[in-house]
């Protein structure tokens, strides 16, 4: 039996087998130090942070910055910037480096001093503080911060026992959470990685600031998470979590310590670390989970005539077969993932049973085949003209679709055939879902038209269908969300929503082939949108799982609490498709018509990506004017962006900000042609920062002189941008005047 020697250091207990060291091979001293790294830890990051605390990310011992040395038994950790995202984090981390095969118990008494914004905004559950172990560190934040530089995402395979907000409301309560992330192969994050969270103690009232005891233990087999406050004690392990999770990016080292992130501050007392030598570790195997096979119907179950087109699509390549009343109609038609399978049928009886079968082109395709059977019925309602249906707020299912006897909207959507048009009469309509089963076809789009721009929806409009033209509607106090494909929206106004006004997005788990794609938005306006936390609501967004071909043309976004356009991309989803923005305007974002900005870190004009994923978005002939943050920004998208013939004027921070990525070579970054930048009434200490592959005829630097034509043009633009708050919808008249000026 090996003898065990306990080596006692301040606040640290080391346990080693006697045979592993001698007089000449004593274990190296354990050094603790502090580092700040990751997105939103910049010295000037100020979103939902009090101005006097911007840049505060530090570990203090006796009110002095900690220096490398033994573990301090008592210290304070505060991180105003940073974030705890699904695929990466920005933190202040007081840590030590240990061999990967070292087991440990790290514990302390912790008092939570602050969690969440102090600006009046609600928490967004990206805040937290506690104990963490991870496989790599991020690059330490730049101090001093170079002009135009902001910290990029830092991702790791990691385990945390930590404090997080109880909800997205400032209710004075917290949870204790066990979290781990795996599947990270690159330091900026990896698509398809997995994060698992479990709140194992909930609803703790921290207003009294009573201390509690947190513990994170690693053994050869598992991690153990512990919490204790007085007589209340809780300890858990997480199924499927093994220490090999830490051997993925760095098979030699692990980094263990205490952390804080985004408006979090803790005081730590009686910190202790016990370590023992464990067994060698191999990386835990991880593969991105495959998306389940999904078959989606895209045609109605009612027909108004004998002609009926069945339509469906799936998220894998494969083969479609179709039966009508048990008779084969078509068999084994090859269809690409995301493309529409369409087949014309004749329904000559009152109803017909239609069955579709999809076999994915996979090794086990037959086992994963999907079937669906529907009964297609002929409508019993006598419609005077099924191709042209009139709808009114007080319409009924007993109407015949004429102007004199209008239908209700739900019935009209159900009965409208491909190629038909719904004419909505003036009035306020409730929330609407346009399901995928109500889709038109590529050859025969369906149309919804509002009358005289006086059709208003006062609830959320969820557009899941494809092949529609939608025109002349207003969505007030709610969002318009597009999850379908091949739609065209024209003359749409969205405003005063509790989140983004007009958003193209897709549900999780459907697979890239079914992401919302090839939608066109024209001549539309979105303004005055604000969420509770006052940091997320944009005017327009094409983010969070969008496919190729989404385009905005001649649109205006103004007075939204966050960005004019947001093309944010999540690492775990993989890259979005290319979005194109043409002839559009973003002005005075970062505030609403009623609420001034509480932060200089929200309110971009055009935010073109996110989280270090390269996507080659396109912006042409567009204006970013007087936004609260940046005019045009990559938002950490290092891709081959194309910006051409754009104008940025008097944005509060940068007019143009396109950073040099630490992950991609500069030659892979953007192309910039004929872009201009001016400052006349809004000073800024920052010149434009643009890193790209091609630079052709741009004027990016601050200019103190301009040609007469430009001066006249800009003076007129400034005059037109002064909002008349006495208007029913303040800012709308001015935005349209600005648009007219630019198109003259």
Automatic annotation (TrEMBL):
Residues 481-663 form the Pel9A-like right handed beta-helix region domain. Belongs to the polysaccharide lyase 9 family. InterPro entries: Pectin_lyas_fold (IPR012334), Pectin_lyase_fold/virulence (IPR011050), Pel9A-like_beta_helix (IPR053868), PelX-like_Ig (IPR058863), PelX-like_N (IPR058953), Polysaccharide_Lyase_9 (IPR052052). It comes from Testudinibacter aquarius. SUPFAM superfamilies: Pectin lyase-like. Residues 33-276 form the Pectate disaccharide-lyase-like N-terminal domain. GO terms for cellular component: extracellular region. This is Exopolygalacturonate lyase. Residues 1-22 form the signal peptide.
């Amino acid at each position: 039996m090996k003898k065990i020697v306990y080596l006692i250091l301040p606040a640290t207990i080391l346990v080693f087998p006697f045979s592993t060291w001698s007089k000449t091979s004593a274990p190296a001293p354990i050094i603790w130090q502090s580092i700040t790294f990751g997105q939103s830890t910049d010295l000037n990051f100020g979103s939902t942070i009090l101005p006097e605390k911007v840049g505060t990310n530090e570990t203090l011992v006796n009110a002095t910055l900690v220096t490398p040395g033994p573990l301090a038994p008592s210290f304070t950790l505060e991180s105003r910037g940073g974030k705890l995202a699904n695929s990466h984090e920005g933190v202040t981390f007081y840590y030590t480096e240990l061999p990967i095969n070292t087991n440990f118990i790290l514990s302390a008494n912790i008092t939570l001093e602050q969690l969440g914004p102090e600006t009046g905004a609600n928490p967004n559950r990206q805040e937290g503080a506690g104990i963490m172990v991870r496989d790599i560190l991020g690059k330490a934040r730049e101090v001093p911060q170079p002009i135009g530089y902001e910290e990029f995402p830092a991702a790791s395979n990691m385990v945390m026992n930590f404090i997080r907000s109880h909800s997205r409301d400032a209710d004075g309560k917290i949870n204790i959470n066990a979290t781990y992330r795996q599947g990270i192969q690159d330091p900026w994050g990896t698509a398809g990685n997995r994060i698992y969270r479990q709140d194992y103690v909930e609803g703790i009232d921290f207003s009294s600031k009573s201390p509690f005891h947190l513990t994170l233990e690693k053994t050869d087999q598992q991690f153990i998470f512990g919490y204790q406050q007085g007589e209340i004690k809780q300890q858990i392990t997480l199924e499927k979590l093994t220490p090999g999770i830490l051997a993925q990016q760095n098979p030699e080292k692990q980094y263990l310590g205490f952390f804080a992130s985004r408006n979090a501050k803790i005081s730590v007392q009686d910190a202790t670390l016990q370590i023992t030598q464990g067994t060698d570790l191999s990386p835990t195997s991880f593969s991105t989970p495959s998306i389940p096979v999904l078959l989606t119907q895209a045609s109605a179950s009612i027909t108004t005539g004998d002609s009926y087109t069945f339509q469906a699509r799936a998220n894998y390549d494969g083969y479609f077969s179709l039966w009508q009343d048990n008779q084969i109609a078509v068999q084994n038609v090859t269809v690409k993932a995301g493309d529409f399978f369409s087949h014309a049928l004749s329904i000559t009886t009152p109803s017909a049973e239609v069955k579709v079968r999809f076999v994915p082109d996979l090794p086990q395709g037959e086992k994963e085949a999907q079937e669906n059977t529907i009964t297609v019925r002929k409508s019993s309602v006598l419609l005077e003209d099924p191709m042209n249906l009139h709808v009114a707020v007080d319409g009924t299912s007993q109407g015949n679709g004429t102007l004199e006897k209008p239908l209700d909207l739900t019935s009209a959507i159900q009965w409208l055939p491909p190629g038909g048009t719904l004419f909505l009469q003036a009035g306020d309509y409730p929330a609407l879902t346009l399901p995928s089963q109500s889709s038109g076809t590529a050859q025969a789009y369906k149309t919804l038209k509002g009358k005289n721009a006086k059709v208003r929806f006062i609830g959320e409009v969820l557009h899941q269908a494809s092949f529609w033209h939608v025109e002349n509607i207003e969505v007030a106090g709610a969002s318009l969300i597009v999850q379908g494909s091949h739609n065209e929206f024209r003359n749409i106004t969205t405003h005063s929503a509790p989140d983004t006004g007009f958003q193209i997005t897709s549900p999780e788990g459907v697979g890239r082939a079914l992401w919302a794609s090839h939608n066109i938005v024209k001549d539309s306006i979105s303004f005055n949108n604000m969420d509770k936390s006052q940091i997320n609501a944009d005017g327009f967004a094409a983010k969070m799982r969008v496919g190729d071909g989404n385009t905005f043309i001649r649109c205006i976004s103004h007075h939204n609490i966050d960005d004019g356009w947001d093309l944010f991309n999540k690492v775990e989803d993989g890259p979005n498709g290319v979005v194109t923005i043409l002839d559009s305007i973003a002005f005075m974002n970062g505030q609403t018509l009623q609420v001034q900005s509480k932060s200089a870190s929200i309110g971009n004009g055009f935010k073109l990506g996110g989280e270090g994923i390269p996507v080659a978005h396109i912006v042409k002939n567009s204006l970013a004017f007087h936004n609260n943050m940046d005019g045009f920004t990559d938002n950490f998208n290092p891709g081959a962006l194309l910006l051409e013939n754009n104008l940025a004027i008097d944005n509060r921070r940068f007019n143009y900000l396109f950073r040099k990525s630490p992950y991609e070579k500069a030659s892979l970054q953007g192309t910039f042609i004929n872009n201009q930048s001016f400052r006349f009434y809004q000073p800024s200490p920052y010149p434009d920062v643009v890193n790209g592959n091609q630079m052709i005829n741009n004027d990016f630097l601050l200019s103190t002189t301009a040609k007469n034509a430009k001066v006249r043009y800009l003076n007129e633009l400034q005059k037109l941008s002064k909002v008349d708050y006495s208007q029913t919808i303040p800012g709308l008249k001015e935005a349209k005047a600005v648009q007219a000026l630019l198109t003259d």
